Amino acid sequence: MKVGVSTYSLYGAIEKGEMDVLAIIDWIGANGGEHVEIVPFGFALETNRELDEVKKRAAAAGLEISSYTIEAQLLQPTEKEFQAEVDRLKKEVDKAHRLGVKLMRHDVASREPEEATIQNFMKDLPKLVEGCQAVADHAAQYGITTSVENHGYHCQHSDRVQLLVSSV
Questions:
Q1: What percent of the chain is helix, strand and coil (3-state, nearest 5)?
Q2: How do residues 21-72 score in pLDDT, each as one tens digit?
Q3: Helix (H, G, I), strand (E, B) or coil at 65
Q4: pLDDT over 90 percentage in the chain
Q5: What is the pLDDT of residue 152?
Q6: Is 72 helix (H, G, I), strand (E, B) or coil?
Q7: Do 58 and 28 touch, CB atoms closer than 8 A?
Q8: E strands of the chain, at which residues?
Q9: What DSSP designation does 126 have?
């Protein structure tokens, strides 16, 4: 087992302007961390330069970048918007590859609590499987394993997560 910290754990410091992602990486390394999970929440990693800076800083701090975790919403009102979200997620996989990670976690979909019924989940499942499969297939070329985040009401129950994963 290795001790590590998610950048999301220090989101409050990012939000207050006290730290940026590079300072967080330094802090984790200075406090005995062995790995960092990069979660671009409160900061963006849009360019190869930014990705390379994070990778370089983690190496300098003695940290493995263990995972890249992102938000996603595969439930979209139109096919065009669904494809745009899948394409965006594939670009996030490319970022994970640039960071050198072998694990990437993403959200699947969320609904308001009153809409997060089993009936809606079963109706949505084929599209969720299609999206997750496309992302997983894209990641496989890099040797990256994808996993799903179990929150957002609609996909947080263990039986729903198991059904989704076994269908992909």
A1: 55, 15, 35
A2: 999 999 999 999 999 999 999 999 999 999 999 999 999 999 999 999 999 9
A3: strand
A4: 95
A5: 76
A6: coil
A7: no
A8: 4-6, 35-38, 64-70, 103-106, 145-148
A9: H
Say what the pTM is. 0.93
Q: Which residues, 6+ apart, have CB-to-CB distance to 102 below 8 Å?
A: 143, 144, 145
The amino acid sitting at 99 is L
Q: How many Cα atoms within 13 Å fall on the side-chain side of residue 109?
A: 28
Q: How many whole angstroms separate alpha carbon 64 and alpha carbon 84?
A: 31
Instruction: List CB contacts of 50: < 8 A, sequence separation 6 or more.
Output: 44
DSSP class of 45: -
Residue 2 CB neighbours (<10 A): 9
Which CATH superfamily groups domain 4-167? Divalent-metal-dependent TIM barrel enzymes (3.20.20.150)
Q: Which pLDDT value is given to residue 156?
A: 86
Rounded to the nearest 10 degrees, the angle between the axes of helix 118-140 and helix 158-167 is 50
Q: Which amino acid is at 141?
A: Q
At 56, list the tokens. Answer: 């370089």
